[in-house]
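Notes from hallway chat w/ T.B., transcribed later so I don't forget. T.B. wanted the structure written out for a chain they're using in a teaching module, and asked if we could keep both sequence and structure tokens in one place. Agreed to drop them here.
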Amino acid sequence: MPLTHRSLAACALLALALVPMGCAKRTSASKVGQYPGVGNSAALGQTATGLGFPGSATKNTTRVAGTDPTADAAAIARAVFPAGTPGGRPKAITLVDVNDWRSALAASVLMSAPVRAPVLFSDGTDLPGATADALTALGPTGSEKAGGAQVVRVGEVARPDGLKSTDLVGADPAALARAIDAFQASARGTTSGNVLVVSADRPEFAMPAAAWAAKSGDPILFVSKDTVPEATRVALSAHQRPRIYVLGPSTVISPAVTRVLRKLGTVIRVGGPDPQANAIAFAQYADSSFGWGVVDPGHGLVFADPRRPADAAAASPLSASGTWGPLLLTGEDGGLPKALGNYLLDIQPGYRRDPTRGVYNHGWIVGDESAISIAAQAQIDAALEISRTHNSAPSKP
């Protein structure tokens, strides 16, 4: 089993916290979404510009440095589906209002099989330039599972010219989440046996659900602190007594809600007392076929700012491809909270003789420096680095 060495690594992490961060160079490419060549294989000579990142990269992290979730979503979709490569074009994309974080989180499930549609953002009924450019570069081919649609429109959003779309509608976010769930179940040919229930009022506690939904195909439904919307009840009933995973502590989703949910399925609560601890608890959790279970080295991780909830949906394709990993949350000040630093050290890779025979962690940093600081990125990089361990056990070849 891969080795960890939290005590040694803590010294390196502390050192990084005490010195200026000069290892990650700032470049103009950090303004993701302003480059027409993003995602175009013809632009390989302009690496940072060509893919929209890295604006600042380290040896164990890659930053998608969008100034807002719209830019992040455009860059991430084009990185996950690079133009000019076999299978590089998605069959469909999901278009959601960037001002509606709830529907954006729920729509993350459409990145899972069989639709595999990354999230892009509309600004109300206007189509931002970054999204329009991404649509052109991605060139969705049309999904049979989505009725031949190239665009799945969620709510009142722009209607891109020249692309076939299918519309998902609902009177409110809970109803839209129900519509998304029904659409996904129709595409799969069956409902999921697991459902994620999250807070409609506290986005910072709901954000980690987007990554799991994109990976697993388990839908996201919403409740308030003390009430279960009728649309959520109807959606859960359609799943025929599923396992209902409630994400967040009882201060966010009360026991009154879980009592109602128990009439509709088996309820399991996962979470922590604050947004960062909540995300860590969800990353660690595993129950049969549900949960990341990231308690050891050798994983991809995604880091987002809890102040930018739509970034969770924008980043969800990173959790359903590449190094597949859970979403973790940095501090509200853009820094690295102690609990997150400790968790990263707990899963830090180690080696005894040869690092090339070890396993590695990689981190995606989502957002520009106003979201997650360069100092936090450098500290994350140090905590992800594979390092030599020292113990009394005989060395292995």
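Follow-up for T.B.: Residues 1-54, 392-397 have pLDDT under 50 and may be disordered. Might be a good example for the class.
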